[in-house]
Write a structure and sequence with these properties.
Radius of gyration: 23 Å
Bound molecules: S-adenosyl-L-homocysteine, iron/sulfur cluster, FE3-S4 cluster
Oligomer: single chain
Low-confidence stretches: none
Structural class: alpha/beta
Shape: globular
Length: 479
C-alpha cells in the first residue's frame, strides 16, 4: 500500500479556458535528474495505446523516455514491471475498454505488488474519471496528463522509489515542448506533429479540454524533423494536428498550412500525408500545393459529421452542407484520382429521420472511399452533453447499420476500378505466417495484400487481381 500521495488533479473549468497569451516553446524542459538515472535498468515496460494518431505519437515519446531510463519494451503484461495505458476519452466505449482493462490488472498487481500500473492520455485529463479511479481502482499507482509527459522520469521515481501514489495532470492551454526523446514504432513511416490542441469546440467533442489550446510548432522545427527522418530512410511522413488547416494561425502566418506543406514536399521525402483536415479552414492555397507536388498523396480525410445543416449548426461545425459540397468538388477537380474518407456521427441530440436522410444524401453525393461512423456519445463537460439526448438507442443503432451498409457499398464501388490495374504500394510488413504475403498502402491509401518478394519500407508495383470493399488483393510485379 502506498501511504504517501502527490496529487495535482485535473479541472474541467481550467481546461475550458483560452487566453491570448503567447505560447512558450520549451526546449530544455526534459531532463533526467541524477536520482532517476538507470531507474528502469533490468525492468520491462508494457505500453498499450488507445485512440488517435496524436496518442500514438505521444506513446512513441513515452517509449523514448522509458528507454532512456533503461526500461526495455515487452509485449506480455505478465512480464512487465511497469504497465502503462495511454488512453482515449473520445467516446464512452473507449473509456469502458480502459476501465475494464484496469479492472483486469488487479489480479496481476496482487500477485506482484512491485508492479507499477500507470495511466496517461486523454482520460487522465478528465476530472470525473480521475476521481473515479482514485476511489475505485487502488491498483493504479500513477496518472499523468497529456501536458505532463516530459516529467515522466520524476513521476516514475515518485511512484517506484518513493512509493507515492502519484497524480500529475495539468489542465492548461499547454506549451510546445521540443527535444523530447522518441522511440518510433515504425521505421519507414512516421507521424510528425505540426500542431497540438484544438480551439474549434465542436459541441460534442472532448478534445479541446484534454489537449489544450491550438498551438503550432515552428516550421523550421517540423522541417528539421522531416529531413532527419528522410536521412534515416523514412519513406513517408504524416503531418498531424486536430485541424492541420489551422496550422500557423497562432504564429500569425498567412496560409500557414499551405506554406508548411510545400516546404515538406520540397524536402523530397517520397510520401507526404496529413490528418485531420477541418473543412472550415481548408484554403485554396493548400489545394494548389496538393495539386502541384507528386509526393503529396492524393488522399484526403474530410470529416463531415452530419449532412444536415441544423445539426451541423448545433454541433458548431462552422460549415453547412452546401459549403462542404463546394469544397469537396473543388478538391476532386484539382487533385485527379484523389480518394476521400470521412467521419460521421449518428444520433446527435434532436437528429430526426429527415436529418439522418440528409447525411445519407451526402454519402450519395460524395461516394466516399471509406467512412468512420460513430454513435453519438455524450461527454461530460461539453455543451452537447447538456442537450437532451432524445434519440433512442435502438434508432441510433438502426441508423448506424443503414449508414455502414451505404459506406461499404461505395467503398466497394470505388475499389472496382482497380481490378487489373497496377498500383504503387509502400510495404508496411510481411505476414507472420508466410513471408511471401505482404501488405501496404497505395498512394491513395488503399490497403493492399499481395504476394511478392520484398520487405517493409520498399515501394513496389502491384497488379490488382481481386477487389474487396475495404482492401485489394494483388501480386507484385517483379522488376
Ligand atoms: N479533429 C478531428 C476529429 C478527432 S475525433 C476532426 O475534427 O475531424 C475523431 C472523430 O470522432 C470525430 O471526427 C467525430 O466523428 C468522432 N467523435 C468525436 N466526439 C464524439 C462523440 N462525443 N461521440 C461520437 N463520436 C465522436
Ligand atoms: Fe473535436 Fe471538433 Fe476539435 Fe475535431 S475540430 S478535435 S471534432 S472539437
Ligand atoms: Fe482520443 Fe484524445 Fe485522440 S480523446 S481521439 S486520444 S485526442
Amino acid at each position: 500500500m502506498k501511504n504517501n500521495t502527490h496529487y495535482d488533479l485535473p479541472s474541467i473549468g481550467d481546461a475550458r479556458k483560452r487566453s491570448k497569451e503567447k505560447i512558450n516553446i520549451e526546449r530544455e524542459l526534459f531532463n533526467i535528474p541524477a536520482e532517476c538515472r538507470g531507474l528502469g535498468n533490468g525492468r520491462n515496460y508494457f505500453l498499450r495505446t488507445y485512440g488517435c494518431q496524436a496518442n500514438q505519437r505521444d506513446s512513441e515519446t513515452i517509449a523514448g523516455i522509458l528507454e532512456e531510463l533503461g526500461y526495455a519494451a515487452c509485449d506480455n503484461e505478465n512480464e512487465a514491471d511497469l504497465i502503462l495505458l495511454n488512453t482515449c476519452a473520445i467516446r464512452k466505449n473507449a473509456e469502458d475498454k480502459v476501465l475494464g482493462e484496469i479492472g483486469n490488472l488487479k489480479k496481476l498487481k496482487r500477485s506482484n505488488p512491485d508492479l507499477i500500473i500507470a495511466m496517461s492520455g486523454c482520460m487522465a485529463q478528465e476530472e470525473g474519471i480521475v476521481n473515479e479511479i482514485l476511489k475505485k481502482y487502488p491498483q493504479v499507482d500513477l496518472i499523468f496528463g497529456t501536458h505532463n509527459i516530459y516529467n515522466l522520469p520524476k513521476l516514475l521515481f515518485n511512484a517506484t522509489v518513493a512509493k507515492e501514489k502519484t497524480v500529475e495532470v495539468f489542465s492548461k492551454e499547454g506549451e510546445i515542448i521540443e527535444a523530447l526523446p522518441s522511440s518510433r514504432f515504425m521505421h519507414h513511416k512516421a507521424w510528425v506533429n505540426i500542431s497540438y490542441g484544438c480551439d474549434k469546440f465542436c459541441t460534442y467533442c472532448i478534445v479541446p479540454y484534454t489537449r489544450g489550446k491550438e498551438r503550432s510548432r515552428l516550421i523550421q522545427d517540423i522541417i528539421a524533423e522531416v529531413k532527419d527522418l528522410k536521412e534515416h530512410g523514412y519513406k513517408e511522413v504524416c503531418l498531424l494536428g486536430q485541424n492541420v488547416n489551422a496550422y500557423g494561425r497562432d504564429l500569425d502566418l498567412q496560409n500557414g498550412f499551405a506554406k508548411l506543406l510545400e516546404e515538406v514536399a520540397i524536402t523530397g521525402i517520397e510520401r507526404v500525408r496529413f490528418m485531420t483536415s477541418h473543412p472550415w479552414n481548408f484554403d485554396d492555397e493548400t489545394i494548389d500545393v496538393c495539386a502541384k507536388y507528386s509526393n503529396i498523396m492524393p488522399y484526403i480525410h474530410l470529416p463531415l459529421q452530419s449532412g444536415n445543416d441544423e445539426i451541423l449548426r448545433r454541433m458548431n461545425r462552422r460549415y453547412n452542407s452546401n459549403e462542404y459540397r463546394i469544397l469537396f468538388d473543388k478538391l476532386k477537380k484539382a487533385i485527379p484520382g484523389c480518394a476521400f474518407t470521412t467521419d460521421i456521427i449518428v444520433g446527435f441530440p434532436n437528429e430526426s429521420d429527415e436529418a439522418f436522410e440528409d447525411t445519407l444524401k451526402m454519402l450519395d453525393y460524395c461516394q466516399y472511399d471509406n467512412a468512420f461512423t460513430f454513435i453519438y456519445s455524450p461527454r461530460e463537460g461539453t455543451p452537447a452533453a447538456m442537450m437532451e439526448d432524445n434519440v433512442e438507442m435502438h434508432i441510433k443503432e438502426e441508423r448506424l447499420a443503414i449508414l455502414n451498409e451505404k459506406v461499404a457499398h461505395y467503398a466497394n464501388l470505388n475499389n472496382q476500378k482497380y481490378l487489373n490495374q497496377t498500383v504503387e504500394v509502400l510495404i508496411d510488413g510481411v505476414s507472420k505466417k508466410n513471408d511471401r504475403i505482404l501488405s501496404g498502402y497505395t498512394r491513395d491509401n488503399k490497403l493492399v495484400n499481395f504476394t511478392g518478394n520484398a520487405k517493409a519500407g520498399d515501394i513496389v508495383n502491384v497488379r490488382i487481381t481481386a477487389v474487396k470493399s475495404f482492401s485489394l488483393d494483388g501480386e507484385m510485379i517483379e522488376e
